[in-house]
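pls ignore typos typing on phone
pyridoxal-5'-phosphate + seq
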Amino acid sequence: MGVDPGSLLLHFARNGAFAPGGTELLVLERGEGPYVFDTEGRRYIDGLSSLFCCQLGYSHGAEFAAVAGEQLERLPFNTNWATATPPAIELAGKLSALAPMEDARVFFTSGGSESVEAAWKIVRQYFVTRGEPQRTKAIARDIAYHGVTLGALSLTGVERFKAPFGTPPIPTRHVANTNPFRDERDEETRCADLLAEIEQVIAEEGAETIAALFAEPIQNAGGCLVPPAGYWAGLREICDRHGILLVADEVISGMGRLGEWFGVTRYGGEPDLVTIAKGLTSAHAAMGAAIVSGRVAAPLYEDGVTLLHGITFGGHPVAAAIALKNLEIFERDGVLENVRTLEPHLRARMEELRELPIVGDVRGDGFFFATELVRDADDGRFDAEEREHLLRGFLPGRLLEAGLIARADDRGDSVVQIAPPLNCTASQLDEVVDALRETLIDAGKFVGLPEDAAALSS
Ligand SMILES: Cc1ncc(COP(=O)(O)O)c(C=O)c1O
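k done
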């Protein structure tokens, strides 16, 4: 039957496609554990945690409502604009203690793009007060997604998202990401080459003009691009040598997705700043943060220096109370431990998908995996028209039919990604993978591939 979106403009969607008689709009109205239910009562397992946000799934509403209610009755709002609230101060303290840098300071925002832009502005103020105002440029990576507000969009490396919007305000050079698929080099050589390219870009631009390098610990867009061993240590070394600040964008990889509070620690990264959002409240309130090392924040504490950035709702006390409860539940329920314990199981189940002819690669860490889809035994790429049919035409509907929410994406090559809630059990993870498998078998048939890889190579 379907629901008409009416006046609602859908984000990153072909709005016209949902007109009456068109694509059926998924309208969710209830959740329970890792499951969500649409307005027709159909149940789906949320293999994407509502776009990498709902780390705890959907059964903690009452606990969050209690702390939100208490805060709403005591004091519904006050800003962080030269004033504060107890939950914002307490949350900043907790995040500072968990953050992978010394004496961290926390600037709250309402979401990921705002966190990235706050990080950039704090970086700029650092260099201006330190007498290096000419450091105006950034380095980021191809296909990376750092948000789409204009500042963050400068850093985002997906050209088609940028084209209509003119010259980005932050001059940014994009370097190769860490996609290992179809790459013949061994890991060590690949890592060395990736780092050498960054050196090359720095030399071309002039090290003294570059303020920061932004990278996700594991890049989401392109499909769970795990860094090669030594990559993050290499980034640190290069940044130190050239006086560039290193920003880990942890909007997805932070808050437990990789079994760590901050994913960068898993790869030996030592960033100067970290950005978070999504999982900070497990999406029970809109909140993000730019977390800044004591060294980088130091100029902001100097006599007469004003931090020239503010977000009205940044540090909202109700959101902060919810985030504190989120951290408490993570600790109480052993959420990070659950990810660490079950990651090998999830990996093993995902690896089984390699036997499907349409699956060229399986990659990821923690509760964050992608399958890269290929058109033949030579790992051929789908062309634009095939991607249109497969990723936008066939897969979204078929995934829902299989009762699974997962993401078919071609910002880079063609991938289907999963990122289930972090408190899933082994059997719930199995449900996700089984539904994905069923869908990919049909996707293979849809593009004319045989049912098993043996038939493909014979
Ligand atoms: C790594 C990363 N940075 C920034 C953002 C932007 O976050 P938001 O959509 O909350 O503005 C995203 C969103 O998915 C992201 O994945």
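The mean pLDDT is 96. The chain has two domains: 63-332, 334-457. more later
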